[in-house]
From TrEMBL:
Top-level taxon of the source organism: Bacteria
Organism: Solirubrobacter deserti
Topological category with respect to the lipid bilayer: Multi-pass membrane protein
UniProt subcellular location: Cell membrane
Keywords assigned: Cell membrane, Membrane, Transmembrane, Transmembrane helix, Transport
Name under which the protein is recorded: MFS transporter
InterPro entries reported for this sequence: MFS, MFS_dom, MFS_trans_sf
Amino acid sequence: MKDRTRAVLTPENRWFALVVLCVGFLMIILDSTIVNVALPSIQTDLALSSDGLAWVINAYLIAFGGLLLLAGRVGDLIGRRQVFLAGLALFTFASLLCGFAAEAWQLIAARFLQGVGGALASAVILGMIVTMFPTPREQAKAIAVFSFVGSAGASLGLLLGGVLTQLLSWHWIFFVNVPIGVVAFVLARPLLAREPGLGLRAGADVPGAVLVTAALMLAVYTIVDAESWLLGGVAFALLALFVARQATAERPLLRLGLLKSRDVVGANVVQMVAVAGMLGMSFLAVLYLQRVLGYDAFTTGVSFLPISLAIGVLSLGFSARLIMRFGARLVLLPALALMAVGLFLLGQAGVDGQYWVDVLPALLLMGVGAGLVIPALMTLAMAGVAPQDSGLASGLINTTQQVGGAFGIAILASVAARESGGGEDPASLVAGYSAAFELAAALAAAALVMAVVVLRRRPAVAAEAAVEEPAVAVTV
């Protein structure tokens, strides 16, 4: 049935539309971490091997990371609202299938479908936001809200996963998505304006779409499966063919002119490296708390609340003002430094580590850093992007975030396993985790150096000029 809904965005309902977009995004982000805490229960219930259990995560990452760039461009061509709604519906349906899965292959297949739906929905959200909020002050506020949902939602997923798994069962970490998805879909249809796309003729580069999707999926597969590095060469070759295709195609999928922007490319590269350290830390910190300090799933989730609160306070309360006052680049640099220090401190936690002394200060520093890093990078990545390319730019920054996260988890987990010598005693585990946390700190420091060298200095929007616009209260 053709969707004949017509929504007209006004200064008032734009913020309600933003909340709906963020609810849909929160569901997708929660799912990326809510599964981690439930993995032991899933492994026992479905009799999965360690390799099979890894595919509960990998199936989602491969579909999600591989399709983000294509999904963003499809949104530009046929309309971002339509792509968002389709992705939301598919993700919700796939979550239902995950919850009812009784065998390993059913869960893995449904997780792949979740990844497809998540890519479709999340790839276009940032593009919709920058279109809905064109003025610098409001755009900074809206991106801050979106960044908060993305960063804090990942930490909240650990808590929610622990609660649902411990009180009910692992099936409910997927069932909980269904009512959220249905409500978000119903509210989104009347609230989101139906913007006409450029049309498939403006960029229906089918060979290019096949090349880039195959390249990204193979790249993510190579990252999550350390024994498949030969495929990394194939992925690189496919990516090179895609670039060559875009340089000569009459209607390219990706305008290479977008990559001529120093800030767009720089922000994406910096984000990939920084997120590799941050998400790799999150994955290993859960293991440190559970396997070394003996925390259960619920206590582990509660332990991450401070980082969620720090991200929330910075993202919603200060990041937009700081970016408007000093510029995104000047906000980004000290924030990356705080992340690096927090990761290094976490690497010093020992066998007899104390949460209040060894873990909490590090989490707070990382929370403050992440609460400023993500909004600043998203602002830089979307600055100066033409409206017709906003979906593509949104998909690109989501792609680098997901690929960076997969890269960080794979590399840091490998380092932790090597440095532990295969031992399962607390001393061996701590040796591995400490080495991995210090490598994560080095990644954050490398991101800082890249930001200093690559990102251009831009004059900040004067605070006085920003104040001339009416303030808008945002309730989330």
